[in-house]
Amino acid sequence: MYGAPVSTSTxxxxxxxxxxxxxxxxxxxxxxxxxxxxEELQHLVAATPRLRALGTRHCFNDVxxxxxxxxxxxxxxxxxxxxxxxxxxxxxxxxxYGVLAEHLHRAGWALEAMASLPHISVAxxxxxxxxxxGDRTRTxxxxxxxxxxxxxxxxxxxxxRGEDGFAGSVVALGLLGIVTHLELDVVPTYQVRQDVYSGLxxxxxxxxFDEITSAAHSVSVYTDWVGDDTRQVWLKTRTDERPDAPxxxxxxxxxxEPLHPLPEVDVRNATEQLGVPGPWHERLPHFRASYAxxxxxxxxxxxxxxxEHALASxxxxxxxxxxxxxxxxMCEIRTVAADxxxxxxxxxxxxxxxxxxxxQEQLEVIAALAEIEAALAGAAARPHWGKLSTADADRLAxxxxxxxxxxxxxxxxxxQRVFANAxxxxxxxxx
Length: 431
What we know:
It is a single chain. The protein is an alpha+beta fold. The chain is built from 11 helices and 22 strands. The chain has helices at about 40-45, 95-105, 120-125, 165-170, 200-205, 210-215, 310-325, 360-375, 395-400, 405-415, 420-425; strands at about 1-5, 15, 30-35, 50-55, 70, 80-85, 90, 110, 145-150, 155-160, 180-185, 185-190, 190-200, 220-225, 230-240, 250, 250-255, 280, 300-305, 330-335, 350-360, 380-385. The strands form 4 sheets. Strands 13, 14, 15, 16, 17, 18, 19, 20, 21 and 22 form a 10-stranded antiparallel beta sheet that branches. α7 (about 310-325) runs antiparallel to α8 (about 360-375).
């Protein structure tokens, strides 16, 4: 057993909720609570009529807000405990993926996937169905083996893989309780090299889509939907699967100097490239844990479509290029393997994700999203829970076969609506 507790103050504290990371949303909740122990959290939940957990504030909508109060678990002790025999790690909910990864790597273990940002919390990434990239790589949520949470009555409970309702309890948008710890699957540590390519044409992408997305453990294609070429292709190759990378990728050439996905951002923020092997957690994310993530002054949206709709969706978005390009920093195309979690964007289907990073012009972006969603209407596109979208309750209910089962699970565990909010009411999950 490998443990890494870090002590913090146990004095309860409160603060003003403030705004999210992108500063496009200011939380309406009355008070932000920062308990120092799980016991304090239990008392807080039991005594507070309406309460939601706030993670690392990287959502771009009101999913994390509350009509009552918010709670932030960052002052609870950081815990990372590896069980080598079971090949699992138990981690405290507010721990960032970057911190977790450092502990795991030192102990000789790894996660199969990382998101673009190592800065997000484990619980927040899991609750919203966040993912990395790869034909065989599932969402971060799919690694969860068990959840420990404080329910609406203030009591602690544990939900394990295989139990009734577990598949609805992982990507749960904070509706089943305040998660305090998670147990994740781990694998032996591994090395990754990262190579970036420029000049891949859309014609080559469409003709060789499967070959391109299977060319490495993790593949990202970047485009601004302008012109005949995509902008960059990032290959992240496990060196135990393949020690090298191709010099040329269907007409795209390998870069001889480091690149950033967003041309205007300092390339030092990006993880190391040029084929230099390094630990998995220093290559799978796009951005270094020690630097500010991505662009900051931006808005994000993302849609996951079934893999069989990838080419038609790409063609449809190209047609929108002239209208959305002026608002766009960049769009990333990734693949995600299917899982069985009820509200996962990849639930029941191998998927292709189209991730948009927009300029911070919210009214214009919302109008553009309506166009994008109309273009993807025939592709059963599922929006990311933590990003901007115009999707309504009726449309979402049709996209998730277990939608009503999830609503029933929430009603059973939180009949008093302690964890409901305007976002979940608006989408018909509560209320």
